[in-house]
Write a sequence for this structure.
């Protein structure tokens, strides 16, 4: 469930930020670029969670 939530929020935030920034720069909004950024962010979060945030097994 945490993976689905991470992907959902990464996509939602990347789309919103990309839309706002492209609107401010008078550039066309390209959804593909926002989804690529969301994918990279999701992979980074999964790697961070797997390497740094380990559960205690005591």
């Amino acid at each position: 469930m945490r993976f689905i939530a991470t992907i959902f929020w990464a996509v939602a935030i990347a789309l919103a930020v990309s839309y706002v920034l492209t609107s401010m720069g008078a550039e066309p909004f390209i959804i593909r670029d926002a989804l690529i950024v969301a994918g990279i962010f999701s992979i980074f979060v999964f790697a961070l969670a797997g390497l740094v945030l380990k559960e205690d097994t005591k």
Summary: DSSP finds two helices and no strands in the chain.
